[in-house]
Amino acid sequence: MSRTGNSPLRVVFMGTPAFSVAALDAIANSAHEIVAVYSQPPRPKGRGHQVQKSPVHMRAEALDIPVYTPKTFKQNDAALDVLRSHQADIAVVVAYGLILPVAVLDAPRYGCLNIHASLLPRWRGAAPIQYAIWKGDEKTGVSIMQMEKGLDTGPVISMEETAITRDKSASALHDELSVMGARMIVDVLDRTAEAAEPLPSVAQDDAASCYAPMLKKDDSRVDWALEASEIDCQVRALNPWPGVWTTTASGKRFKIIETQPAAKSDDGNIGQLIDKGGAVQCGNGTTLQLVTVQPENAKRMDIKSAINGGYINVGQCFS
Hints:
Elements: E1 10-15, H1 21-28, E2 33-38, E3 43-45, E4 50-52, H2 55-62, E5 67-68, H3 77-85, E6 90-94, H4 102-105, E7 112-116, E8 124-125, H5 128-134, E9 139-146, E10 156-163, H6 170-195, E11 211-212, H7 228-237, E12 244-247, E13 253-262, E14 279-281, E15 287-295, E16 301-302, H8 303-308
Parallel strand pairs: 1-2, 1-6, 2-5, 6-7, 8-11
Antiparallel strand pairs: 3-4, 7-9, 9-10, 12-13, 13-15, 14-15, 15-16
Helix pairs in contact: 1-6, 5-7
């Protein structure tokens, strides 16, 4: 079946977490038709380990779009046959969570597009939002990429950027980039429909690439020998998950929710709380101001309340 310019596209949408929902909604509200949604299978979550559908799965059901949840496409001819049966013009992939074999990438007429939350080739991989903040980048953004076999290596069709300011945690940047990607993908789909062929794209410079691996709980502990600005970036990058923590002199875990760099000081040992305002001595003569914390077995509080409550005392060292 041939296509003519400006004919609405038949779209297969593949996504799983909350980040993907804005794009799903944007396409559903566009001129294009989402013929199927693919998402990770329902899994146990939370303290009660109740089986829950993904945010994309639940939103697709609310939009009355059929949902498919194959565990894999590899050596799964039945799943591939179903995918081909949708006769999609294009697939949009947003944090789906499955490696797609070439047979899937080639199934739609115009292939598969990926919404990736970084300025590719910088921060390929699973955690680009967090790593952009953590490593002190001044900007990040969204790339719309034509997918190929490699991990986030495909040529880029569209890219937009945004500044990473000190008031942006990973949570805030997540929401901003989710909305940005949703707007961008509809524009790309509109232009693809008008052209009735894949859009021009620019190959990535592999030599300039860097990788953002999946976050681990081990990433969460503070190294007070680092400079205050580096620790501040870590706190913002890992908020809300997996969070950042240290231990008090008594060995209790002490979560750090919000910080800000303070004036330089050499008044204490590395990791030492040096005043009642919550300043902690860090590496290279820098000082980090604790703002919001959560002592073990306690609720969140400002640092002055933590000091007044005896959870940590001036002169003690975190480790």
